[in-house]
Sequence to fold (561 residues):
Amino acid sequence: MQKLIECVPNFSEGRNLEIIKQITDEITRVDGVTLLDVDPGGATNRTVVTFVGEPEAVIEAAVLAGHKSKQLIDMSNHSGEHPRFGAMDVCPLVPISGVSMDETVEYARKLAKRLGDEVGLSIYCYENAALVDERRNLAVVRAGEYEALATRLQDERWAPDFGPTDFQASTGATAVSARDFLVAYNVNLNTTSTRRANAIAFDIREKGRILRKPHPITGEIQRDEDGKAIWSPGSLKAVKGIGWFIEEFGVCQVSMNLTNVSITSTHVAFDEVLNKAQARGIRVTGSELVGLIPLQAMLDAGRYFLKKQSRSTGIADAELIKIAVKSMGLDELYPFKPEEKIIEYVLEAQNKSQRLINLTLRQFSELTASESPAPGGGSVAATLGALGAALGTMVANLSSHKAGWDDRWEEFSAWAERGKKCHDELLSLIDKDTDAFNQIMATWKLPSNTDSEKADKETATQAAVLNAIEVPFRIMEVAAESLEVAEAMVNDGIPASLSDAGVAALCARSAVMGAYLNVKINSGDLTDTSRRNKFLDDGEALQQHSIDVEQKILSLVNGLI
Fold:
């Protein structure tokens, strides 16, 4: 798996687009780095930049961006709604794939040292990258913001981890971290009262609020026996939040950082703000996503709101995203474009290679008919399987909405989810099968002039052959699993769609048999006879099972229609 980390530097400039462009140009000139998103905010006077790449390339790009921000941003003239203390205010690294958090911590500290030594920024390491435990919390590191920094630096306890220890008036200080994927998420309110927006933020954020004794005017702070203020935690874990007024939209927002969406998701945060706002006589009108969000977070949100409506969740990703956007009002302030806001879609768009599943049906069919040897039988078998799984899923979704079957929606939703899971994997296998063929062809071109080269070529060839067997075998497994959905829909689904379930079974059986032909022909080149025989034996059994199930399904269908 390719090592990928994400970098999300926040720069204290959100109004001068030329300055922002000069900074992001430094990022894009580094090979191996993809700029995913640039999100400037006028009211906050802050821009969130997101880019991804291999670790060393990402570090290099971050150093160049930090250097350019030092040249162009003067903190002594800065003002904005968002807490800040530096030109390059924060610069977190986030593991995306092939990299552990421990490795990301080391990369973050390497970045911090380079920003301090080479760029001359005063650097504090926070969260997982913190070198001092007291500095794990960004709010503590940034306390008092830029205006308090000169005084803080006179205290030896707050000397920077890297870089200058004296006050840098133009650049302030920068906080560098390694953290989990953070979602910056704001919920819009129909109020202009920052105090009320803050009260809602205090209700829900993990830190909560300071407890006060009942008093008609002052509300004295409650303290423990050591004289420290007592805090009452909010209702949501892994959430930081404040309330603010956004002048450009004329509304207040509860602005949140969801520091771990597996603990508190966007949809849970939205509903909790909604509930707390309603209790205070305030209405939530929508919400705003700042920067990027993982696809899974949007799919989870779509399923969450569909379940609240007692509707099937086994629908296309695009429909799940649409439900999430409309349910949370993510398009209230400006259009929500999935291809620009969902990290996987942005990366896919950046990938210049054309994938088979992105072709039109006509293009795919004509490419198959051409003189090119790929796509071939394996990709077509996966396509048949995907179509069969899609049909079974369709019947499950139709059944979940049948009048009079309202109490059975969860049953059919579960079947639709299973069918969709098979459908999605089979779609991915369409390209994987062609990739496997191309991998074999690539090994033919490897040099074999010396004994060492011959040995390396043979090792690469056998690895490619094994992959070319494993991919169609996986097509067999997934297509066979989709038969279970088709059979369940024949037995229990909506009667009007019996023929659809029958066609689903035909497609699935054909996908299994077609993929098995590829397993057999590619197995002839595998030198590991034990492994080859197992693929053939298991494949034969799986093929016969699929034929038997398909015949059973067709017998039922023909007997009922």
Remarks:
- The chain has three domains: 4-178, 183-343, 358-560.
